Amino acid sequence: MEVIDKDLMSIQEVRTLIKKAKEAQAKLASMTQAQIDSIVKAMADAAYENREKLAKMAHEDTGFGRWQDKIVKNEFASKHVFEAIKDLKTVGILNEDQEKKIMEIGVPVGVVAGLIPSTNPTSTVIYKAIISLKAGNSIVFSPHPNALRCILETVKIISEAAKKAGCPDGAIACMTVPTIQGTDQLMKHKDTAMILATGGTAMVKAAYSSGTPAIGVGPGNGPAFIERSASIPLAVKRILDSKTFDNGTICASEQSVVVERDNKAAIVEEFKKQGAYFLSKEESQKLGKFIMRANGTMNPQIVGKSVQHIAKLADLQVPESTRVLIAEETEVGSKVPYSREKLAPILAFYTEDNWRTALDRCVEILNNEGAGHTMMVHTNNEAIVREFALKQPVSRILVNTPGTLGGIGASTALFPALTLGCGAVGGSSTSDNVGPLNLLNIRRVGYGVKELEDLVDKKATEVKEPTIETTDKEQLISLIVQRILAEM
């Protein structure tokens, strides 16, 4: 019986897909803006029409989150992203300044490698394909093995729609035999121009270590500060809306709540009123053992799971109506599970003396994990917003809005995106909500507006005549002789 090497199959498949993608991208690069826009619209429409089907498939494949919320994600990745970029110029001359005599031209990067996580599989495929094609690039996906079926179906739907609109074959492709070796080949292949990496820390590090330009995102671990001027019922509502959305699988979701001591009681009461359950010290210790694995990584058993599932896992008895589990915490650290990222309906709860110590606590949480990503501030005091904006090590501060929806640009005016850059502090190459312009090179044309003579400081090079303001007799005679000779 012939033994088939899965790793070699995966590597060969990647090489074939990249070859076709490169050929397809050359054709995309010669298309007009109208042709590109027509293709992107067809992709967005097809994804939107199949949003429910794909959401259910994603939930069936992974067991993460709620399929009802995944419909919203798919709608956001298709309709909302398309609406934001439909009028964006990405082909040919993008800008021209007649006064400064500068011209900017959009140049596609080429073949994009799209790494897809299991937490948001279908929506991430839709989003990455749309922004890549809008910039004139082709894209080859590396799917998470646990979400292979729904990812392949998503690629099939949008690629067929794109081809009907004139997109060259091979411009949108996906590995069908996902292996670490195949993904490594995809990232390191000489014809891969850019990597869009969304996934775990190890995957993102591998992308940045590949030698290929990459845009990756680090972990989110955003704290939410409720300042004393905030509307407590509204702040609590927004936090719970965010943390329960798709069972907390979006990395911009809140991971901890920080409050001031003098309004703690009112905030705790409001959380309980709206369905949160505060764990006792004993319960907190029991659940804490399930949040992180021995190697310090998040336990996949809790990711995207409901409160009821998590409570059963940890042998906890909580009311059936519980929406979120909350543990009071006083420490921050790599071995303090509640202070870490928890892609599940679990929150840490910190109490501080005032807004200044709360600010410091938020910085401590973020520097421990999640630096460069996102944090939330609930306040009606603009001065507080500015203080946090100036000092928090994040790329986006969200004010009076749910973290999940605000970070991706659904409830804010930030650019709608499912890849949220964390900047240099978070080990990322950008702090943007990533869009088509991040997948373009800008070729600049500059006309000469000055000559060499215009660049010379005439006063600095001007030879000054010697003065005769001196009391040294020999020097004075020398200066007089020089002046006489110069006038002859």
UniProtKB/TrEMBL annotation:
<dbReference type="InterPro" id="IPR016161">
    <property type="entry name" value="Ald_DH/histidinol_DH"/>
</dbReference>
<dbReference type="InterPro" id="IPR016162">
    <property type="entry name" value="Ald_DH_N"/>
</dbReference>
<dbReference type="Pfam" id="PF00171">
    <property type="entry name" value="Aldedh"/>
</dbReference>
<dbReference type="InterPro" id="IPR013357">
    <property type="entry name" value="Acetaldehyde_DH_acetylating"/>
</dbReference>
<dbReference type="InterPro" id="IPR015590">
    <property type="entry name" value="Aldehyde_DH_dom"/>
</dbReference>
<protein>
    <submittedName>
        <fullName>Acetaldehyde dehydrogenase (Acetylating)</fullName>
        <ecNumber>1.2.1.10</ecNumber>
    </submittedName>
</protein>
<dbReference type="InterPro" id="IPR016163">
    <property type="entry name" value="Ald_DH_C"/>
</dbReference>
<keyword id="KW-0560">Oxidoreductase</keyword>
<dbReference type="GO" id="GO:0008774">
    <property type="term" value="F:acetaldehyde dehydrogenase (acetylating) activity"/>
</dbReference>
